User: What shape does this take?
Amino acid sequence: GRELVRSLQAELAQEGHVVSLVKLCQWLGLPRRTLYYRPKPRRRVINTDLATRVKLALERFPTYGYRRLACVLGENRKPIQRILQLKNWQVRKRPQGFRPRARSLPSVTTRPDERWATDLTHVWCGKDRRGSLAVIIDCCTREILGWRLSDNGSSKTAEAALEEALVFRFGALGRIHQPLALRSDNGLVFSSRHYTATVKAYGLTQEFTTPYTPEQNGLVERFFRSLKEECIWQHRFESLGQARAVLGRWIRYYNEERPHQSHRLCGAPSTPCNSCVGCAKTRGSLQ
Assistant: This one.
């Protein structure tokens, strides 16, 4: 706008026509302020007290982005994002590549205790070497109902996690009398005769994902990612006992305090909030 008007005025002056800027603005239908306005650079001020709190929160949760940090600190997310940008404290973004997704067998459910999911992962335990961690997650609330860390990845470990989940949810260990599915991959542990017999004895319906499609068991896979980024990779365990203690504290934090994306970062799996629509559905189902 400004350069166009001034160049047009110069061309007219070369041809012998003296035209004022006001007149040119009238001809072109431009407001005169576009010719005289000069933007003033605004100095971005950082709230030092808030920046100190953000830094302390980052030291405790180094993998959190500005949305989850804002939830943890109880602040608006925009000043948190501005501080992370100006201080260069932003978390590295994961590369977004194309991955084909399986459309069948969705794992998300509409009510608690409709489908559970289970899987195994490995944890390095120092002198006790590699341990196996089995977890049971509710596909509606994302709550970890049972888990077991042992020095071997046998079916006994997975069965112990399942029995802990049954006791936690139903108060006693025995056959349940409501439809409940248990999803897992096709690993040797979950397809073994001993494990399948145990699942059947407790009244659960076992379902397996399609081979080579871990996204069909995406809830438990996503939990393992959070567990490794926020807990396992932040520690160097010296023994199996130390790993059990640290993992137990983090899983308790995950269930009771950690803001969850499925609850719009406004509640933990076992403590949904009172205002969010999605959390209200979960809360109503738990009552």
About this structure: The first strand starts at residue 115 and ends at 124. The domain at 115-286 is CATH 3.30.420.10 (Nucleotidyltransferase; domain 5). The chain has a mean pLDDT of 85.
